[in-house]
TrEMBL record, chains A, B:
This is GntR family transcriptional regulator. It comes from Jiella pacifica. Transmembrane segments: none annotated. GO terms for molecular function: DNA binding; DNA-binding transcription factor activity. CDD domains: WHTH_GntR.
Amino acid sequence: MTIEYDRIVRTSLSRQVAESIRAAILDGRLGVDQRLPDEIELARRFKVSRPTVREALKRLAAQNLIRSQRGPSGGTFVDLPSLESVSRTIEGATTLLIGMGAFSVEEIVLSRMETETLACRLAAANRTQRDLDAMEAEIAVEREATLSDEGFCASDVRFHRAVVDATANGPLKLMMYTVIESFIPITNMIIVEDRERRRAAESHARITQAIAARDGEGAAALMRRHLEGMRGILEQALAQRAARFASTTEDALTASGAGASTPRLLDGLG
Amino acid sequence: MTIEYDRIVRTSLSRQVAESIRAAILDGRLGVDQRLPDEIELARRFKVSRPTVREALKRLAAQNLIRSQRGPSGGTFVDLPSLESVSRTIEGATTLLIGMGAFSVEEIVLSRMETETLACRLAAANRTQRDLDAMEAEIAVEREATLSDEGFCASDVRFHRAVVDATANGPLKLMMYTVIESFIPITNMIIVEDRERRRAAESHARITQAIAARDGEGAAALMRRHLEGMRGILEQALAQRAARFASTTEDALTASGAGASTPRLLDGLG
DNA sequence: CCATGGAAAAGGTATGACAAATATAAGTTT
DNA sequence: AAACTTATATTTGTCATACCTTTTCCATGG
């Protein structure tokens, strides 16, 4: 005969507390901008110590679920996230997967092609003058000869975001930021030749024209061609990054001895 | 004359430590499954106290970037996330946005229509027998008359996921899990009538047939019609959820007095 | 050879104190 | 009286230290 033992709690207290508060937020028992009890009170309610409560709060803060402020009338507040903060969270998570080589170049290029051509079609239907202005501003930036590589890539990302923004579809924007943003760290490492740059800028210009003319199919076709041209560049970038991950050194956190000069932190890893 | 003061650090130490370690992981200076120094050593390296280090580690743990284990040969390890864990993170973030009513029903329906028809086309091209089996398994579940509402909705989600899986495109899967998964909490609240259920199951069956026959366009058209039918249900669900959020009570964290019976926690919110 | 038990190592929790920020109230000066 | 300054209280942020719990591994004894 087997005895029913007490179910032993195997998750840490801070995790349980975090889950508990998180559930309260998700269920709507805690509304936006509502103030939580202060940490000492939370500790009393949950019957744990303050450090434990704080660890729980940090977990939630990492998910942008809460924000804290010192002082009286300060405290911890429910901080329901904007599209931007969620987008950043997603970007961080995706960047890892891509950086690890979880996806092949073919997959990445295909997914971008399919989704961005879709975005082109919707953008052509819904774009406003503001959207067109945003796109053209980026094209102007990209035509600057003095622009750094990072600057060019950042502008490229902003252009593609602008196209997605023009669809005027929130969920779609959210989804596509995932794919677009997560290429920043990769493409940043690539030296974009001057010739390539000009070609990209001209592609962007043509796409913008088509969207301005409400020609969704035309814009989609141009976008497809544009991304096709990026395939080679991406292949190069991913290969470089993979190589770097392969040669991971042993002791990456060696403290850089100096220390005294820097105000406080910012060192700690070699 | 204005003096250049030392740049005051405005972010908390635990945040800085977390960022520092996070950067090391993202840069590849810390490889997967690599062990970090123990907490006391980290505290020494960063010149902060152990609780501060622990708060930083909890931040990272919340992002599934690290995992911890007790005992000797335990410690903190880099835990680069799988597609599933990233997907879960994204789901949590998006669920909030949707729950808050950040998106309109039109936006949601349109985004699902556009992306899922896209998935149908790719699925028809790339599906394997396994994918078809997965879809048909869900259809079989949905035809069970005794299934609970939650069970039906969960199966619905799994079916749509199966379609996306059949595209064999990682980035696309990641993007679409975002949208599909985040509707679970909403659709779960809706009582699906028996008639509706049967209609959905039959839609799923026809879509599966078209994908099996490599008929991408046909599958896409069927999917579009299927989602069109869901528009009304979604409208109802979102209205209900919005109402619940509006009537947020004041004191949602009131401790349930009992306490002695529960092993340790699990209470704390009424 | 296997099982049992006990150290040791590492994360988990608790306590208590102090530091820093900041809103509010009180007091002082103009 | 108004405006500025100062005190003060509140709340998060940080620190130091101790102890508990889990897990590994080795030594010891059967």
